[in-house]
Write a structure and sequence with these properties.
Two copies of one chain form a homodimer. By secondary structure, chain A is of the alpha+beta class. Chain A contains 16 helices and 18 strands. In chain A, strand 17 (366-373) and strand 18 form a beta hairpin. The complex binds flavin-adenine dinucleotide (2 copies). Chains A, B: This is FAD-binding oxidoreductase.
Chain lengths: 459, 459
């Protein structure tokens, strides 16, 4: 019935019944099985988004916004009794304002599109995540995506200056501010950033850009443990102002990655953590010199065990391939249980060791593959079976319980950047106080009184 | 009556009737006349804040939160029929977590206290504003204070990781997150940042700290106009990664400042804008060398007309004294009409020229003293009479109208960092769309259904 209303209001170009929709829309990256919604709506304009929401709101129909469906918390997975509203057609070329250092974009453009458009004008859009080819600005805003450069440039929240969103009742709220400073009342865009599609549909944004640095140098370092890695980072951030990447890989992950890629740039040094670092600057020679000097300092202070500065583009690609080898985990292991945590730096080594021990004690086949964004102590853990075989539901439950209780007991968080989505809803009461939850409900009710937006997700 | 309830609940130590209260609490920095409220409440704990709000809410009594009362929009000025709740007693020593790089503070600590506590551990709290000795963290959060380092480190919003606030009904919402990444639902702290005391009382915060750089070099540069200044900044930000200050002063302001201070470090060069720049780094010699090289580049490209690198601490203080001479404007002129605007860089020169002309045409005695934070194109304008004499109400109205219409016509904003407060409420409909205003009202009603928090302020 509502399907007919949607169809007659928006046309068959925009509204596709769930049964006949392209299967790509029926599943997001991390969810297991496709779900067929009543309809998949793919609006071409903010007016069509508004009309869609208005109709769904009138009929009390659940709405699931979709960006690139690369989310890792199941938040863009369709609901069987609801409508998917996918922004992928709202992807006009980003408008770059070189003087004002901003990009004006529609929500459906991919991260890569924005990065390339900025680069073409000597500018940088600083948020970078592995899913760049598919994830969309709307989805990145809705999840407050973080990634590797967040310790330097911030997450999406710090890189969105203005925003356009459609409220559940169809009202278009345009707050396309382009200024770094504009204190003129509530900063409404903040509501929609990180709200995982529960307060409205993001349709456009003004993104902050930075001047791009043409030169870059990359290195791999081996350090004893996380505490040392932290000291290395501290020393580097003071000595290498252009430092923009500092990723950390634990031995089990590194063995996997170097095996998977078929090379190991640090074969001689003993066990330890591997850091991938990168600095940006005006010209390569100077930058390389600064990095060299900084590394000499690190060796002299015995903070690093081994290290290699990339000498060629090819070698740089190799260093990076080790870091991105996590994308190959799905090939190598038939199941992986993934976690995304933040920890206080002081207890990082202890928590990692505790978890490795706890899971090994549960089953000697379990292996913890740790890697992370060191600058914000955001660690990603993938638990696999060393045989590569499937992890059964019971064992998975055990792993999840072990990781989550250990991290929470240590005062950490179990969603640093991937969000709560559908998967982590049950843990919210452990993460947020009663007063925070009550205030969150108040907000949600105020903006979405009928509760149509992504129900059951976030909380 | 309510006064008695407050007194009996909180005691005479905490609740002072307005008539006998210290006059300091009856006026904020920019408001003209003192206003006597029913009571001045100075709680010593979050529980006392909660109890106060609970009582005021029950009795529908307006509440005005006060920090250091240095706000420039009149938002902390008492209301005659209301209660002032001043946080100045909640000023325990900041707790610095060196490893986690955060400061945990009560809302009543001054900016200077936080800066000093951080510095003592080799860390930097990066927001810096001229009122540092008096303004308090709670007030800075409520106004989303910006200042000189915002182009590099962000405003308060980007430097607050966690927050504790008391809602109008007395509920304490503690969201004292200390992580850079923690995507676990709505980021509730954002509600209170920049809300100017209309959604609750901020009682505590977790602030982000950065590693402090021990060395610093300072320079004054003379450039032809704002467009050139922008090119200079672009060149410097690529060549001097430690660049942390870039303030701009227009000729009329500079003449005043050098006259007021009694020295002029750039006496020989022709008319133009003066930039105060500063870069931070690990050691002074290297930094000085980098600055020297960068300046050579600027001269070679004919981007600057003149320049001087400070050679001593004394000279650095002199350079800075020119920038802070604006604090002496009140002595030199019996009235000043102040503005705080953001403009798109491309039109900066044109708007400044247009306004200078427009006001000169209105009265040849009017002089525009412009200075600003170049990195975010946040300009401060003080309009004075060259004779130093009073600006009458009619003339003031004319000035305000000229500046505001010119800036809005040019697509600028008339409150970059000082906020709306009581003074700019009438302009909100020109700054925000109907949908934004409606959503703002929805939010305010949801959190403060009885409308007790700073009524009449913000909107
Ligand atoms: C290989 C890989 C690497 C990754 N690396 C990172 C990383 O480093 N850091 C990181 O933070 N994440 C990472 N992710 C996760 C993911 O890419 C991000 O969460 C991304 O921001 C999701 O964008 P999307 O467009 O795919 O959103 P989707 O998955 O489509 O949606 C995500 C959520 O946002 C909502 N939503 C989507 N679009 C809108 C809209 N327009 N308006 C309102 N709500 C909307 C959805 O309902 C859902 O709840 C990675 C994922 C993969 C597959
Ligand atoms: C010399 C000078 C230089 C300045 N330079 C700058 C500058 O560069 N950049 C800039 O942004 N500002 C500047 N200001 C303005 C001012 O210092 C800032 O707005 C500052 O953040 C106000 O802090 P405060 O504690 O004095 O707040 P107050 O003036 O006491 O209050 C300001 C507003 O916040 C509310 N409020 C105060 N405390 C709380 C609380 N705990 N909870 C909820 N609401 C609260 C008040 O109700 C009021 O609406 C300057 C002011 C002066 C006098």
């Amino acid at each position: 019935m509502t399907l007919d209303v949607l169809l007659s209001a928006l046309g068959a170009q925009v509204v596709e019944p769930g049964e006949t929709a392209n299967p790509a829309y029926l599943k997001d990256w991390a969810s297991r099985c496709p779900v067929t919604p009543l309809a998949v709506v793919r609006p071409r304009s903010v007016e069509e988004v508004s009309r869609t929401l208005e109709i769904c709101n009138e009929h009390g129909l659940p709405v699931v916004p979709q960006g690139g469906r690369t989310g890792l918390a199941g938040g863009a997975q369709p609901l069987a009794d609801g409508v998917v509203i996918c922004l992928d057609r709202m992807n006009g070329a980003p408008e770059i304002d070189g003087q004002g250092r901003v990009a004006r974009v529609q929500a459906g453009v991919t991260l890569e599109q924005v990065q390339q458009a900025a680069e073409a004008q000597g500018l940088l859009f600083a948020v970078d995540i592995g899913s760049r080819g598919s994830c969309e600005i709307g989805g990145m805003i809705a999840t407050n995506a973080g990634g590797m450069r967040a310790f330097r440039y911030g997450m999406m929240r710090q890189n969105v200056l203005g925003l356009e969103a459609v409220l559940p009742d169809g009202t278009v709220v345009s707050a396309m501010n382009g200024f770094l400073k504009n204190n003129t009342g509530y900063d409404l865009k903040q509501l929609f950033i990180g709200a995982e599609g529960t307060l409205g549909v993001v349709t456009g944004a003004v993104l902050r850009l930075h001047p791009a640095q043409p030169a870059r140098v990359t290195a791999l370092l081996r350090v004893e443990n996380l505490a040392r890695a932290q000291q290395v980072l501290d020393a580097l951030s003071l000595r290498l102002p252009g430092l923009s990447i500092c990723e950390v890989m634990w031995p089990d992950y590194y063995y996997f990655a170097s095996g998977f890629r078929g090379f190991d740039p640090l074969p001689d040094s003993a066990d330890g953590l591997t850091l991938l670092i990168e600095a940006e600057g005006q010209e390569e020679a100077g930058l390389r010199g600064d990095l060299q000097t900084a590394l000499e300092y690190l060796f002299e202070k015995e903070l690093v065990l081994d290290g290699a500065i990339s000498q060629s583009l090819r070698q740089t690609e190799e260093f990076w391939a080790l870091r991105s080898a996590n994308e190959g985990l799905n090939q190598a292991f038939s199941s992986i249980v993934n976690f995304d945590i933040s920890l206080h730096p002081e207890i990082g080594d202890a928590v990692v060791a505790r978890l490795n021990d706890r899971l090994a004690a549960a089953s000697h086949q379990l292996r913890c593959l740790w890697l992370g964004h060191l600058g914000d102590m955001n660690l990603h853990l993938g638990v696999v079976r060393s045989s590569g075989s499937e992890i059964g539901p019971e064992c998975e439950a055990l792993i999840v319980d072990a990781v989550i209780t250990t991290v929470l007991d240590a005062g950490g968080t179990i969603s640093a950047e991937h969000g709560i989505g559908a998967f982590k809803v049950d843990y919210v009461p452990k993460l947020r106080s009663e007063a925070e939850q009550a205030l969150s409900r108040t907000l949600r009710r105020a903006l979405d009184p009928k509760g149509i937006m992504n129900p059951g997700r976030l909380f």
